[in-house]
Write a structure and sequence with these properties.
The chain is mostly helical and about 120 residues long. It has two helices and no strands.
Length: about 120
């Protein structure tokens, strides 16, 4: 009887340790996935910021360039604004299909990425 009690006690301890280890593994895995999503988000923000400044200075240069061609700086900047207005219309029309799906796909890809540690 005592031998059976010892076996059940040991089994209970092993199962408890296993469940604690499994819970710890799930917690670590969740933190790792959250960290990957945050890292991807942060790097995307840095790239977007660099692209923003690139477009800003290209737009200013383009405005002055078209202005010098037309001998009217205001018209040069108006051409650049017209280009961005057309781009805005295209983004509004296609944002659901392209932009939102792209972002969702990237986040899901990061969350369910297979481990390459093998």
């Amino acid at each position: 009887m005592n031998d059976q009690h010892s076996f059940l006690s040991d089994l209970k301890q092993v199962v408890t340790e296993y469940l604690e280890a499994k819970a710890q593994l799930v917690k670590i895995s969740a933190f790792e996935k959250i960290a990957k999503v945050i890292a991807t988000l942060f790097s995307s923000i840095v790239v977007a910021l660099v692209v923003f400044f690139l477009l800003l200075f290209l737009s200013i240069s383009g405005g002055f360039f078209f202005g010098s061609l037309l001998n009217n700086v205001s018209l040069g900047f108006l051409i650049v604004v017209g280009f961005y207005f057309i781009l805005l219309i295209l983004i509004i029309v296609f944002k659901k299909n392209m932009l939102e799906r792209y972002i969702i796909d990237k986040v899901v890809e990061q969350l369910f990425e297979k481990e390459d540690n093998d």
